[in-house]
Specification:
Rossmann fold; 2 domains; LPPG:FO 2-phospho-L-lactate transferase activity; seven-stranded parallel beta sheet; CofD-like_dom_sf; three-stranded antiparallel beta sheet; Gluconeogen_factor; cytoplasm; alpha/beta; Putative gluconeogenesis factor
Length: about 350
């Protein structure tokens, strides 16, 4: 299937409504595959990132970090390839003034300043980029990720939390401007409540997925929605976050943070990762240990488990096969719609 070819699938005259919540490199892969299968995709993207080009821009002009948002917009864009490539272009390190910045990040930062916030800026830019679907920042203001570790100590900042190398007990988010309680825009809540399925992951459990759910009205909406709630378990554990975690440990952390068992279905990869395949120099945040399966633990929490070969190996990295994952999500969307119609 080519990038421009879509599988046309509809639910009673409309496209399946899929909300994907998360951040990081896994999110655009899943979003792109769902887009190619004709899903009506809404991506709710974390705004608590403080690293790389996004972090630098945030420090200079106090803008919501745009990197994850930029990648998702490109994944859903129907613009010609050249325009998408220009938007993604990252200046070389020799260009000292622009070093490391992606053009798209600069455009998002500029529009955010012009519009007085990132939410309306992204909606305007989505129209310009022919985005098929919706891209919603989880919050209209920059957020700070906070963590408490098992030893009782606390830290603020995504990069600092991951680098601490301690076992994380819980995380929460605060507004970076005043330390107050953040809230998502109403469009985010409406999308979650109106979805056929709500998908979380793949992505860093504590720094890409939970920051969204810790925005109170987002977490409340995920608990209240009639949509099927799906969690895509990471294939490998992550250094400084989920060392030695099983798939059930991941779900247990999600449930503990929202104080309720809410994940309906879990997608688990069962294909073996070849020993020594992972390029640990390139993918420094990923552990060489695959996430172990605890089927009994998942069933005890009431989760339906879908186990399959979701593995894609490329460039020394270990990824989810977006098309295979999208197939399962779309099937679950149809099942959820039928159940809710009864």
């Amino acid at each position: 299937m080519t990038a421009d070819h879509k599988i046309i699938r509809v639910i009673r005259g409309r496209r399946p409504k899929v909300v994907v919540i998360g951040g990081g490199t896994g999110l655009p892969v899943i979003v792109k595959a769902l887009h190619n299968q004709n899903a009506d995709v809404t991506a709710v993207v974390t705004v608590a990132d403080d690293g790389g080009s996004s972090g630098a821009l945030r420090n200079y002009i106090n803008v919501v970090p745009p990197g994850d948002i930029r990648n998702v917009m490109v994944a859903l864009s129907d613009m010609p390839a050249l325009q998408r490539e220009v938007f993604q272009y990252r200046f070389a390190s020799t260009d000292s003034f622009f070093a490391g910045h992606a053009i798209g990040n600069l455009i998002i930062a500029a529009l955010s300043e012009m519009q007085g916030g990132i939410f309306s800026a992204i909606q305007q830019l989505s129209a310009m980029m022919q985005v098929d679907g919706h891209v919603y920042p989880a919050c209209n203001t920059p957020l700070t990720l906070n963590a408490e570790f098992s030893d009782g100590s606390t830290l603020a900042g995504e990069a600092e939390i991951t680098a601490a190398g301690k076992m994380i007990k819980r995380v929460w988010v605060t507004r970076s401007d005043n330390g107050g309680q953040p809230a998502a825009e109403q469009e985010v809540i409406d999308a979650i409540m109106d979805a056929d399925v709500v998908v979380m992951g793949p992505g860093s459990l504590f720094t890409s997925i939970l920051p969204n759910l810790m925005i109170k009205n987002v977490g409340d909406a995920v608990l209240k929605t009639k949509a099927e709630v799906i969690y895509i378990v990471n294939i490998m554990t992550q250094k400084g976050e989920t060392d030695n975690f099983t798939d059930a440990d991941h779900v247990r952390v999600l449930h503990n943070h929202l104080h309720q068992d809410f994940v309906d279905t879990v997608l688990v990869n069962i294909e073996h990762v070849p020993v020594g395949y992972l390029d640990t120099q390139k993918y420094t945040e990923i552990s060489t240990r695959p996430v172990r399966s605890d089927y009994a633990g998942l069933r005890k929490m009431g989760c339906r488990v879908i186990s399959s070969d979701f593995l894609e190996l490329r460039g020394g990295g270990v990824f989810h096969d977006g098309n295979k994952v999208a197939d399962e999500i779309m099937n679950l969307a149809f099942q959820a719609n039928l159940k809710n119609k009864r």
